[in-house]
Structures are given as structure tokens and as C-alpha cells.
């Protein structure tokens, strides 16, 4: 399969996207960042950025000339992935790394997570169909588990509050799960693109560490001074809490379900591979966590100690001729004793020279290793400097946005105060109108009473006059 050089990254501004982009740049790939027209994300100044609409015609134009596309748009953009597949195939892209970076399609999930993973599986099936119909189009999924160092920064949600030295251990805390560092995920993407034939049309499984809550708690207790307050709970309680929240319309219940998904005892849902050796990590260049590697190599401790002792004995043997030579230099060469020892000195010189050459070779090898370490550290420093510069730019933008929001908030406060005054005026007018209405009602009642009295008086008068007429007329 042809070598991949040109790589487009969709979603380069996210946590995974930044790490993957940095790894691709370090590996000397020609990287282009694909982003929306209205995106305000800040990208490295030395990377090409294509701003485009996310519809087929514009995406085809953006993907044209690229050997591979890496999709890291997150859950919100998974629904767009089929459009990305179509555009990539039409543009002649040879490898598409799909947006998954979870535990792969074989993971057994809780029912509440079915909708999320069903959408991902639909994307996997669509990519498989594309590759089956077109041999020039291939795909790869990367099952990396949790981005473990990012999760560590969000540890309160995982049951650990480092600042307060509090921990919540679910069940016995021994349910194992795997994770990969952000740098490891970037290395996995680079490894896939460097081994296109071995990674085509399948999911690769990578991991930096395999651990559990109990091991993490022990590590925290050793690293952080002070006593830890440990609270016990269970995955069943998490599931019940999550379902109750979801039934009440609270979306945070999914977080409880996701945690139970990891810690549910005996399920091993979140283990991408039984061990680092049984994953694709070695092929793709994903380094194992130091503690895990030390434990694995501990079985060779006796061999290493034996070899060290043998090397010490060999070094001592090499030093014997050197001591003879030193004694010779302190002896008068004219004496017979000096002449007899001169042969030993001559014979020891080849051995001494060999030892020096061996020592020189070891020193040069150590020097080369140190130079390699220095180069790596320098590269890391450059990356950190770039990230710091980008963070400073983002800080400037966020500060400006904060000032704009503060100004809008002050405007809203002024508008609210003005409307409050209008409401108060309306209340005063309503009170005045109420008083006027009361006065009018009292006046109406008085007029009605007066009118009634006038009618009664008029009726009495008319009655009296009628009686008078009757008397005068003699009609009574």
C-alpha cells in the first residue's frame, strides 16, 4: 500500500484533536486542518487551515489531494461522519480514521447507552460498506479506552477528589479498565498511517495502562500526603441513581450510567485488550505506562543482577594488568626485576587498549542516547511553547469575549432597571385608578339611594293628590 504523506484533520481544536495534530506534525506529515467557516478556534500558525462548509461539494474540494482524513469531531459530530465518508471517497482519500477512540464496536454496554453506541456502529457499518465497494478507500477505527491523563484531570467525576483527599470506591474497587494517554492516542494515529497495510479496514486496540480504582487509590495515597477519606458505594447504586435522573428528565444521569459502565464488577466492559502485549500498541508505537512496564520486566530481575555481577568481575579482571603497569612505572627499568616485568607490561597493553575501546564505545552509545533524549525534550519544549502561545492567544480572545459579555450584562441590567421603573409606574397608576373606581362606586351608591328616595317621595305625593281628587269628586 502506498505511503501516506498528506493528512487532513477534522476537529483539531479539541483535546484529542490537538494531541493528534501535534503527533502528526512531529512525525513530519503534511497536515491540513479542516474547520467550519465560522469557527473561532486558534490553530498553530505553521499549519494549513481550510475553512469550509460541511456539505458534500465543499468537503470534496477540501479533501482533494489528501492521502488520509482523521475525524475527531466528538459525539456531537458523529452524525456528520457518513457525509465525511462520501466526500473523502469522492475526493480520492485512501485512508479514513473514523471518530471513535472508545472501546470499539465489540463493547457490551448498558441499555441507556444503546442509542449512543448504535449511532457509532452505524458509522462503522457504513465505512465497511464503502471499503467493500471501493478497494481504493480504506478505514481504521482506534479503540483506545479512556484518555487516561485527561480523565485524571477530571478525577472527581471518577471517584477521586485529590484536593480534598476524598475518594468514592465502587464495590471492592478491583474492576479493571484500560486507558491511553493523549500522547499515546496521537502515537496510535501516526502508527496507523505508517502501517496502512496492517491496519486497513479494522479496529486496532491500544492502551497505555490497565488499572482499577484500588490501584489508583494506593498510588494517590503514596503520592499525596495526608489521610484519605474513603467512601464506599456500588455500581448498582450508580445505575439506579442514573435511571432515576433520566426518568426525571435530568441528562446528568448519563454520567452516572457511564461510571457504572466502567466500574460494574465482573463485567470488564472497558478493557480493550487483556494486556499491552496482546494489543496493537507495540505495532503502532504506543508506549506502556512505566509502572506497568516495570512490573512486567521485574521477572528478569535475577538475570539482570547476575549479568551485573558478571560485568563487575570482568571489569575487575581488566584492571589487573593496569595495576602491573603502574607498578612498573614506579620501578627502575635498569634493574633485572624491571626488565622481567617489562614483558608483562607489553603483554597487558593489548588488553588495556581493548578495555579502553570498549569503554569508549559504551560512552559514545550513552552519549547518543542522551542526545536522543535531549532532542525529544527539545521537541517537547517546542510543543509546550507552541501550546503556551496558543493558550495565550485563546486567553486574549476569551478575555475580550468576557469584556463583551460584561458590557452586554451591564446593558441588560440598565434595561432591567428601566423596565422595573415602568412596572412600578404601572402599579402606581393601577392603584390610583383603583381609588378612583372606589370613589365612583361610593358616588354611584349615593346617587342610587337619593334617586330611590326621590321616587318614593314622588309616589307618596302622587298618591296624596289622587286621594284628594277622589274626595273632591265624591268618588270615595
Automatic annotation (TrEMBL):
Residues 288-470 form the Autophagy-related protein domain. Keywords: Coiled coil, NADP, Oxidoreductase. The keyword RNA-binding does not apply. It comes from the Eukaryota. Pfam families: ATG16, NmrA. GO terms for molecular function: oxidoreductase activity. Residues 353-387, 430-457 form a coiled coil. The keyword Oxidoreductase applies. Residues 6-224 form the NmrA-like domain. PANTHER family: NMRA-LIKE DOMAIN-CONTAINING PROTEIN-RELATED, NMRA-LIKE FAMILY PROTEIN. Belongs to the ATG16 family. This is NAD(P)-binding domain-containing protein. It comes from Cryoendolithus antarcticus.
